[in-house]
């Protein structure tokens, strides 16, 4: 598979850890201001005003001890996401139309293929944005996920069930039960974290039957609902804090109020065309007193505004009719974000947490004892936000003791002296997004993190994780030639992992931490493997993962760290020690896992000049049929090929759209054929851009056909003889064509409308692998998708010559000492034994058509044997007794 980038010209600010702890965290940094384009819509014409400026600031990493994860002190741009949103709004309309059509198709089961199988992981979890508790039944909780919808548990977190899969938007930021009526639940959609891969929502949903069914009740154009609160004295009164559509300037943002249970809404606090409200707090005994926190947020393909003078605390004493701005003792000027909490026992006591505009880090904790009239700084240095405080930066108070303060950050901070001093907890996954007290019990706490759902019964001293949730967000997926029983992938904030249902969906292996991207595998030595973490940091192991060596320092140094968040790299199909990587130039290494030396083999393929750090290479590929042919695509719509192994490059962009190239993939069937997908989410373009060329990219033809208006992130081509069978990963699932794009159909009958970023194929299991960014890794039998086009198992070098089917005989079975394999006319290359849990036990290598395995020293029991031959692979069940 070729290497592609979901979003190419910017980066997310997130600190990452491995699955089980946050003892090795990678700080992220900030570079906010890059060239800016404002497009304003008038009644009869569009006036385009282009303003160019650059104000770049750097935040040096606060490095923590980590042998595996050392981050260079490079600035980090902002990722720009959500393909359906743009400056003028018509892109959103097209996307909505497409989603409605696809929802109807799903309801009628109009798809091809069978059912998707969730391979896992379950125990790793993923980002949870919010938690809601049933007001009267213990252990009944709801969690809202970044992209995976809503899950419900009735046993305290041991088991979970999705209850929101038929909705338009599965990005969830807030869930609220109506007081005194647990059957009525309100949900705010859109991803309030507003990180690099966030998605917009479509307003507020309401259920009147405990979550069995849902109805969209309004605010479908505000993009993100950050928070919902319900007036306990009059449950018909609701308030919604919204960010708006952060990809366009407009009036659909701020604080909204409903007085009829959500049937209608009125904007009661509008702060500006690019300013929303991140949080709203209600006085616990006087519901007419409200506090709201302003947040300036605007993103485009060349700009990210994350700070502003409007970032203040606003107060109303008349239920939102009028507002004043709180200031006495609070920071003034431009800020990034404010977190706010009010005491449950003394409503005049309040805390405000500020995120500064320079470092996007902790700017101080302030306290008021008079309802916000005056404030005092109580702490200015005890907390670290890692340089991306906007990602969380919230505060919670013990409902029974307002001197006990919790701050949500990379870690969870706790103070028992009113914020004067803080302690850190290290027992849960990094990045905290919500904290709730169970029935206002100070000791019983629920916590939402980037690694799932936690519960403490002793006020946070110890924690238990309750995941069993298929919500891991995969950037990329891969298959190992030595491990046919497992699937590999790199996940958001959860590293590089492998596993499958066969080995246990909740028993996956973690290979490397941080954000994980594409794993790569040596084709000869099963001990050699490559992994990658953010910003182009490539690591390699030659001892099966016992030790990893960073091999990309020279690459990053030469490219001045001008790399994408998900830097494309690949291991050559023709030379096991040759690697290619793309920054804004293509680099080559010839020493495999033992090198840190890279040679530049291309000029600047972005033609970006010296002040365009967001112009980067997003996808590279090597022809599957010729070692001389290389392809590269960039974030600024430039596509290139080299026909001489990188000695020279020719631009082949003519005929493509002026859009980010999400994937370039050489055909597995014809040396002249190549595919390109592009995503126009930064340009208000929801059209599905996919192109085909039969002359190495000199001429292109669109094969989008009747694809729905969903951004395309990846393409996979069936290894048959005519390139007619193609599969794509989109923001709304997986689609396939068997007539080269004339008609497209949705793949699978059970995958919700979730983003899928990457596709791979497992030759051994004959299953298509989907790396979803919402519901973990899923697979489907390829024969169910293309039943009349079976995959040709041939090697690329002999693709035009059909081989006879081969059969593998294994005997005796059950066995005691020796097992014999007979592959007929083929030749054995390798046999790998896995135990019943999918763990690799032993590897054998052969060069004969009949091979014997000595299994006398192995424990008795069930094993799986992956047999690799010159004509294909097969997996056999073996019993030792």
Question: What structural keywords apply?
Answer:
single chain, 881 residues, mainly beta, Methylamine Dehydrogenase, Chain H, Immunoglobulin-like, 3 domains, 4-stranded antiparallel sheet, 3 helices, globular, disordered N terminus
Word description of this protein:
The chain is mainly beta and 881 residues long. The protein folds into three domains: 132-465, Methylamine Dehydrogenase, Chain H; 474-798, Methylamine Dehydrogenase, Chain H; 809-880, Immunoglobulin-like (Sandwich), CATH 2.60.40. Helix content is 3%, strand content 39%. It is built from three helices and 67 strands. The strands form 18 sheets. The chain has a four-stranded antiparallel β-sheet. Strand 28 and strand 29 form a beta hairpin. The longest helix has 18 residues, at 90-107. The protein is globular, with a radius of gyration of 27 Å. The two termini are 41 Å apart. Residues 1-90 and 792-806 have low confidence and may be disordered.
Write the layout of secondary structure elements.
Elements: E1 36-41, E2 46-51, H1 90-107, E3 117-120, E4 128-133, E5 141-145, E6 150-153, E7 161-162, E8 172-178, E9 181-189, E10 204-207, E11 215-218, E12 225-230, E13 238-242, E14 254-258, E15 266-269, E16 275-282, E17 290-296, E18 298-299, E19 304-305, E20 313-316, E21 324-326, E22 335-342, E23 350-356, E24 362-368, E25 376-379, E26 394-398, E27 401-408, E28 412-415, E29 423-425, E30 432-437, E31 445-449, E32 452-456, E33 464-465, E34 474-480, E35 483-491, E36 495-499, E37 509-512, E38 520-521, E39 529-533, E40 537-541, E41 549-550, H2 553-558, E42 569-571, E43 579-582, E44 586-589, E45 599-600, E46 617-622, E47 630-634, E48 639-642, E49 650-651, E50 660-666, E51 674-680, E52 685-693, E53 701-702, E54 712-717, E55 726-730, E56 733-737, E57 745-746, E58 756-762, E59 767-772, E60 777-781, H3 782-785, E61 809-811, E62 818-822, E63 828-835, E64 840-845, E65 850-854, E66 861-869, E67 872-880
Antiparallel strand pairs: 1-2, 3-60, 4-5, 5-6, 6-7, 8-9, 9-10, 10-11, 12-13, 13-14, 14-15, 16-17, 17-20, 18-19, 20-21, 22-23, 23-24, 24-25, 26-27, 27-28, 28-29, 30-31, 31-32, 32-33, 34-35, 35-36, 36-37, 38-39, 39-40, 40-41, 42-43, 43-44, 44-45, 46-47, 47-48, 48-49, 50-51, 51-52, 52-53, 54-55, ...
């Amino acid at each position: 598979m070729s290497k592609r980038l979901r979003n190419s010209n910017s980066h997310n600010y997130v600190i990452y850890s491995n699955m089980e702890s946050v003892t090795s965290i990678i700080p992220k940094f900030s570079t906010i201001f890059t060239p800016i384009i404002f497009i304003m819509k008038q009644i009869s014409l569009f006036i385009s005003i282009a303003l160019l400026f650059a104000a770049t600031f750097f935040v040096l990493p606060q490095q923590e001890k980590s042998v595996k994860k050392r981050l260079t002190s490079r600035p980090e741009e902002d990722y720009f996401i959500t393909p359906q949103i743009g400056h003028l709004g018509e892109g959103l309309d097209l996307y909505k139309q497409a989603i409605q059509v696809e929802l109807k198709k799903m309801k009628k089961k109009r798809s091809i293929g069978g059912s998707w199988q969730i391979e896992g992981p379950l125990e790793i979890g993923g980002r949870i944005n919010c938690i809601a508790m049933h007001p009267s039944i213990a252990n009944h909780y709801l969690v809202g996920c970044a992209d995976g919808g809503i899950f419900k548990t009735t046993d305290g977190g041991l088991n979970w069930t999705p209850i929101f899969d038929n909705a338009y938007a599965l990005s969830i930021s807030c869930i609220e039960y109506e007081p005194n009526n647990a059957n009525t639940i309100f949900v705010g959609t859109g991803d309030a974290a507003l990180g690099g891969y966030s998605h917009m929502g479509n307003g507020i949903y309401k259920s009147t039957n405990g979550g069995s069914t849902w109805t969209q009740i309004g605010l479908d154009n505000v993009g993100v609902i950050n928070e919902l609160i319900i007036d306990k004295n009059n449950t018909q009164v609701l308030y919604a804090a919204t960010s708006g559509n952060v990809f366009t300037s407009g009036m659909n943002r701020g604080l909204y109020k409903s007085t009829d249970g959500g049937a209608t809404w009125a904007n009661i606090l509008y702060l500006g065309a690019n300013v929303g409200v991140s949080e709203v707090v209600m006085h616990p005994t006087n519901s007419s007193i409200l506090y709201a926190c302003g947040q300036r947020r605007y993103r485009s393909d060349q700009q990210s505004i994350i700070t502003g003078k409007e970032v203040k605390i606003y107060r109303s004493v008349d239920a939102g009719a009028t507002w004043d701005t709180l200031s006495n003792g609070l920071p003034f000027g431009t800020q990034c974000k404010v977190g706010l909490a009010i005491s449950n026992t003394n409503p005049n006591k309040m805390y405000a947490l500020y995120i500064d505009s320079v470092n996007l880090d902790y700017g101080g904790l302030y306290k008021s004892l008079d309802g916000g009239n005056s404030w005092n700084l109580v702490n200015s240095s005890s907390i670290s936000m890692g340089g991306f405080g906007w990602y969380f930066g919230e505060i919670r108070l013990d409902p029974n003791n307002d001197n006990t303060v919790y701050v949500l950050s990379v870690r969870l901070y706790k103070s028992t002296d009113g914020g004067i001093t803080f302690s850190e907890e290290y027992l849960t996954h990094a990045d905290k997004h919500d904290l709730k007290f169970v029935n206002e019990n100070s000791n019983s706490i629920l916590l939402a993190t980037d690694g799932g759902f936690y519960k403490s019964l002793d006020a946070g001293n110890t924690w238990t994780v309750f995941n069993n949730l298929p919500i891991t967000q995969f950037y990329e997926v891969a298959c190992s030639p030595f491990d046919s029983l497992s699937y590999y992938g790199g996940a958001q904030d959860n590293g590089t992992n492998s596993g499958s249902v066969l080995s246990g969906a909740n028993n996956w292996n973690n290979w490397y931490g941080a954000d994980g991207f594409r794993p790569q595998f040596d084709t000869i030595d099963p001990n050699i493997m490559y992994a990658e973490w953010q910003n182009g940091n490539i690591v390699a192991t030659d001892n099966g993962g016992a030790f990893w060596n960073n091999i990309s320092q020279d690459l990053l140094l030469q490219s001045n760290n001008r790399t994408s968040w998900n830097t494309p790299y690949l291991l050559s199909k023709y030379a096991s020690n040759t690697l290619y990587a793309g920054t804004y130039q293509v680099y080559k290494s010839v020493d495999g896992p033992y090198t840190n030396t890279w040679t530049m083999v291309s000029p600047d393929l972005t033609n970006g000049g010296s002040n365009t750090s967001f112009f980067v290479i997003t996808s590279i590929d090597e022809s599957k049929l010729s070692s001389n042919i290389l392809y590269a695509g960039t974030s600024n719509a430039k596509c290139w090929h080299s026909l001489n192994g990188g000695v020279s490059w020719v631009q082949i962009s003519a005929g493509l759209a002026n859009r980010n190239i999400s994937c370039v993939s050489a055909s597995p069937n014809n040396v002249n054929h190549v595919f390109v997908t592009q995503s126009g989410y930064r340009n208000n373009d929801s059209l599905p851009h996919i192109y085909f060329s039969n002359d190495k990219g000199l001429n292109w033809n669109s094969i989008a056909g009747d694809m729905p208006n969903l951004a395309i992130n990846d393409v996979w081509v069936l290894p048959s003889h005519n390139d007619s069978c193609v599969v794509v990963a989109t923001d709304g699932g997986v689609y396939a064509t068997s007539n080269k794009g004339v008609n497209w159909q949705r793949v699978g009958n059970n995958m919700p409308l979730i983003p899928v970023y990457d596709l791979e194929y497992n030759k051994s299991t004959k299953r298509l692998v989907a790396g979803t960014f919402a519901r973990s890794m899923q697979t489907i039998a390829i024969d169910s998708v293309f039943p009349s086009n079976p995959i040709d198992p041939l090697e690329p070098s002999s693709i035009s010559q059909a081989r006879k089917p081969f059969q593998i005989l294994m005997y005796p079975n059950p066995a005691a000492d020796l097992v014999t394999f007979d592959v007929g006319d083929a030749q054995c290359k390798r046999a790998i034994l896995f135990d019943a849990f999918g763990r690799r036990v032993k590897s054998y290598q052969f060069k004969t058509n009949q091979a014997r395995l000595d299994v006398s020293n192995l424990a008795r029991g069930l094993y799986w044997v992956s047999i690799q031959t010159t004509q294909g692979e097969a997996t056999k069940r073996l019993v030792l007794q």
